[in-house]
Model the fold of this input.
Amino acid sequence: MDDSRNDTTELDVEPVLATEQEALRWLRQVDGTVYHNRNDADGENAFVAVVRTPPSNGKTGKIILAFGESIQEAAGAAEEEWNTLWSSMSVTH
Done:
């Protein structure tokens, strides 16, 4: 997997889910959950967002696990992957 697409260190980009409330609202909309890893409370994997995409075109849904230092970061990574998966599923072959 190419992690370079998630690297925004050189870009001045606002996170899509800028507040904790926006992140939690998006997770509720997609029936997602966020977990806090108390063993890594201050680390880069402190929060884990878990989201399942609905089935599409007769295929089962996919599970998305996204990690972050905050709820916003974990949910934002999950949302990005969600959008990527939906884009790839909506392409007609």
Remarks:
- The two ends are 23 Å apart (CA to CA).
- Residues 15-89 form a domain with the Double Stranded RNA Binding Domain fold (CATH 3.30.160).
